[in-house]
Structure formats: structure tokens, C-alpha cells
Amino acid sequence: MDYNRYSDSLAERYASKEMLYIFSPAKKFKTWRKLWIALAEAEQELGLPISDEQIAELKRFQDDINFEVALEREKVVRHDVMSHIYAYGEQCPKAKGILHLGATSCYVGDNTDIILMREGLQLIQSKLVNVMAGLAQFADTYKGLPTLGFTHFQPAQPTTVGKRATLWLQDFQMDLEDLEYVLDGLKLLGSKGTTGTQASFLELFGKKQELVDRLDDLIAGKMGFSACYPVSGQTYSRKVDARVLGILSGIATSACKFSNDIRLLQHLKEIEEPFEKSQIGSSAMAYKRNPMRAERIAALSRYVIVDALNPTLTAGAQWFERTLDDSANRRLSVPVAFMGIDAILDLVLNVVDGLVVYPKVIEKHLLAELPFLATENIMMDAVKAGGDRQVLHERIRTLSMEAGRNVKVEGLDNNLLELIAKEDAFHLTIEELKQSLKPESYIGAAKTQVEHYLRDVIQPILDKNKDVLGMKAKIDV
């Protein structure tokens, strides 16, 4: 590592080796060469005078890239594609004359970008499914564990730990649906020429439109795509980048929500993210167990959400058939968004896999608030015992305010049940009141909702993607 140069934290610390390779120079330039071979093969099949020997020569050096030659050439011509054509031609003198025949720089540049984004989305898809599997298991394990619900981060009607987890899970499920839709719709640019009219190819093929139409289909098939975009300028519409990064932004949004809830739950000491045996929470306060993974998820999520504005602005700023003010921006914004989401999903997967639940603390917090939440049931029991509903309502209101004041002002425990038991109007003993405070009686259909959601919605998704399940994520820093 060169400590005298700036290094990218996403590449050096957070992103996986798999995602780093997808957007590496080696992967990009190898893909360029695959595209040049696909073009030559397609042109040969459509009748152009390209020999098997020339194609064989191109294939022989497909993965053996002479980077130094290309780099030196680029210093002279200031053009990356032409530099690599030159370098490839140095290795393939017999094929040199037919290399890149009829194409523009965007033939390799844009088609490669689509290919890399597709592979990046496929990796993200696998990680997203594994996150969902982990959350599904967690939700199922704790589907019946009552916990205090919160609205406005104020105590509200109880739910269950598992039901709350399904809220996180459903967000990621929607992200997966969006990802699969965009992924299934990705197409190659194909070979459209300088303004998208395919004029150079019409010239090559003697004005035979049917051959030009076949060219894109052949290239798409050779590169593993079903089709090319039917119309374009010199580039594919930059709206594609905006759609792809919109998916990544959506995943970041879901991850950020999840991480914020975990941070709040860790503050409450109800649920904690995994904490390594030798991990240091604070340089000053040795006792601390900071939620550093969840905080990193939140930090990287904000970065990806903001970064997703770049392709949106770029798409809107394009002029007619082509401008070059997209290039420098896309070289930065697209890869880092993929690196960011890759790192985020690894973190989420790691956190979900190691979540620590403290049922006793959860129960303590719930029981401290349950008397307030149970007042309607208590009032109904008192009415059945012969009380006046209107009188009882007013007494409960007054006693609740007194108990709340004891908790907030005096710092005492919630003594609402004791206050109610002293009131003759309720005809209920303290034992009878406590007997009514069964947390599971106040969770509504939470447990059933979890069971139905996991069975009807999530399990079919996991069954469909069973081949990619089993991923683990190890966080080193």
C-alpha cells in the first residue's frame, strides 16, 4: 500500500473482492476484447470477409492483455479505446485490419458498462436474498415474543420482535422485486454507430437492412443478452444508469431504516448487533458497546442515496445524440454506488446473522408500560364486576396521570395497578389486576401475521433462490 496516495475507503476497507473485480480494469478490458470478438464473429456470419484464422488469433489473446502497451499508447493519442485497439492489434497482426470494424468507442464502452452493471446487480441480488433469509429466520424465531411497540418513539400498543423484523424484511423484499424488474429489462447498446443510425454498418453490408438488423441480435446473443435497445444515440440512454442506481438507492434506504432501528434497540438494551470478544467500543470509555456496524450501514447508505442523484442529473443533461460530460461522472458514480451497496449488504448480513436478543429487558420495558396500555381491558373487567363505565373512565384517567407523574417526576416505578386496586369502584384486587397483564394478550394478530407472511410471500422467494443461499459475511474492520 502506498501511504503517500489517497486511497478509496470503499475499495480498501468495505467492498468485497467479488465486487471489486467486477469493476476492475482487468474485467473491463477483457470484456472489451470479448465484445470485439463478438463483433468480428457476427460480421463474419453475416458475410463480411473475416477469416477463422483472424478470429482465432483474437481469441488467443482475449485474456492476455498487454496493459503496458495500451498505457504508453494512450499517452500519445489521449484515447483509451484507440489505445487498446492498438495494443490488441500489436498482439494480433493478422486480425488487426478487421478489429473494431464499423464500430465507435461506445460499442465497447457502453456495452461493457451494461455487462458490468448486470453482473453487479446479480451479486447484489444474491446478497439481498441472503439478507432476507436471515431476517426471515429471525422473524420466525421471535414471532411470538411480545415487545413494546413505538410510534413517534413513544410507547404504544405491543407487537412482537418477529413482527417488527418483518417490517425490515418487507422493505428488502420490495427492493428485490424492483431489482429483478430492472435486471430482467437490461439490454445491450449493440452496435449503433456514431449517432445511433447504424450508417457505417449499412455501408459495410451493402445497404442490406436485414443484415444490419441481424447484427445486433447476434452480438446480444454472443454476450448473453436477449436483445439490444431498439433505438439509441451514440450511447445507450443514460436513463438506464439512473434506473439502476435508483435500485441501489432503494436498498440503501431499507438498510438505513434497519440500522437506525437496531441502534435505537441497542440503546434500549433490548437487541444488540454482534460484538467481537476483543472489539473496542470506545477509546475513552472501556465499557461501551457501540453499534458500529449499524452506524456504518447508516453512513454508507446516506452516501449511496446521495450518489444516486448523479446519473439522474447526468441523464437529464445529455444533448441530442451524445455529449461527453457524462463520462467522468459515470466513472465515479456508478462503481462507487455498487461498492457501497455491496459493503452495506455484507454489513446487514453480518448483523442479522449475529443479533443478540435480551428477552428479560424486553419484558421489563413492556411490563413497565403495560398498565397504561391495559386500562381499557381493566375498565371492561370492572364494568362486568358491576362498575359504572363513565365513572371508571374518569377515575382511570386521573389515576393514569398520577402514575405517570410518579414515573416522570419522582422516578418511581409505574404504580397504576396499585392505585386502581385501592379504588372500591373497580372491585378488583391487585392479584386480579396483575393476572390480566399477560403481554401475549395484547399483541393482536402479530404472530399469525408473521407466520402467514413468511409462508405465503417469503418462502417462495427463498425456494426460487435456494442455489444462492448460505452466504456469510465477515467484517474485518
Report what the structure shows.
By secondary structure, this protein is mainly alpha-helical. It is 64% helix and 4% strand. The protein is built from 20 helices and 4 strands. A two-stranded antiparallel ribbon has the order 1-2. Strands 3-4 form a two-stranded antiparallel sheet. A hairpin with a 2-residue loop joins strand 1 and strand 2 (154-160). Helix 3 (25-45) crosses helix 7 (105-141), helix 11 (239-267) runs antiparallel to helix 12 (292-307) and helix 12 (292-307) runs antiparallel to helix 14 (327-353). The longest helix is centred in the first third of the chain and has 37 residues, at 105-141. The protein is elongated and about 105 Å long. Mean pLDDT is 92; it is low at 282-288.
Please sum up the structure shown.
With 477 residues, this protein is mainly α. Helix content is 64%, strand content 4%. It is built from 20 helices and 4 strands.
Layout: helices, strands, pairs:
Blueprint: H1 9-14, H2 17-22, H3 25-45, H4 52-60, H5 67-77, H6 80-91, H7 105-141, E1 146-151, E2 154-160, H8 161-185, H9 199-204, H10 209-222, H11 239-267, E3 271-272, H12 292-307, H13 309-317, H14 327-353, E4 356-357, H15 359-373, H16 375-384, H17 389-408, H18 416-421, H19 430-435, H20 446-464
Antiparallel strand pairs: 1-2, 3-4
